[in-house]
Amino acid sequence: MFRLSALPVGLPDYVGFHYVAFNLPFACDNPAEVSRQMKHFTGTRGWIAENNRGFGGRSAYDEYYTLRNELGDVLVTLCTRGKGKAKNLSKMTFNGKCFEKTSHNCVLDVDGNPVNFLELATKVYEAGGSFTGLDIFKDDFRGVLPFKQIVEMSRKEHYRDRVITPLNKDRGDRINPPTYMSKDSDSLYFGDKNKNQVLFYDKGTFEMSKWSWIRVELKIRHKEDSNTIAQMLLEGANLDALASGILRNYLNFKVAGTKRKEKRETCNFWDQFVGTERIRLPRRKRTKKDDEIDFDDVSFD
Predict the structure, then answer these.
(1) Are 117 and 147 found together in one domain?
(2) What is the pTM for the complete model shown?
(3) Is the Cβ–Cβ distance between 145 and 214 less than 8 Å?
(4) Is-contact 267 44, C-beta < 8 A?
(5) Strand partners, 198
(6) Residue finishing a domain among 96, 128, 160
(7) Which tens digits make up the pLDDT trace of 221-244?
(8) Fewest beta carbons less than 10 Å away: which of 14, 211, 230, 235?
(9) Do 243 and 136 form a contact (C-beta atoms < 8 A)?
(10) Which of residues 100, 128, 156 is at a domain's end?
């Protein structure tokens, strides 16, 4: 077992899931069914629904249950008794700790293994479910990403000249730069929180690590995109290559110069971190049926 905060500088980039959410096309309307579904999707043993019910409801659901680790951290949430457009549906969310075998995690299956995303996705689709959100992170331990420089390039006065992204669209003459926050640790958000986002995060400072540790996170909230990614992984796509290609499609940092930014070179740090291949997630045209079964996704982690 290991802690990421104890890893030395120079290690390869680390890629994984920080959050996974999916809907199931049935209501778990009694504790026995809740326990059965929790066991089926997590592999945990001995979990009793009656002992893990939350107080009140969550968003479009009247009941929710949690699976926690030995420290009390919520690993899995199962919401049921949906109402409105969520009627007769259940929802499950998985914290990223479920997918890593670290000292902060509890053992979820009888073999002592963390949740395998491909096995989970197979179960979701076999049950007739669909993914509603995926957060995929890529960590830089090599000191490739100059975080302060990226923040400076993304400020209002430099953003239009140095960054190309479809996530932050200007509104007429109004510049719409990414959101910078510095409460607990510096973070930079590209995009709208209700849609797909890219987050840059100085995780080393937050974890009080001695090593350089910058996290870049894809926060996918478009349901079709979430399922496209899951299907691509099930078909054999490499998670690192897929995440890097999507990041490259969403963001491009340009060197300074007098030419139009589209004709300038990409900053070397971005080429090193995500490579040069762009992956654009295909989307089909929405239909009236999509709108009838769709409802807002809410993160619980």
Answers:
(1) no
(2) 0.87
(3) yes
(4) no
(5) 190, 218
(6) 128
(7) 999 999 999 999 999 999 999 999
(8) 235
(9) yes
(10) 128
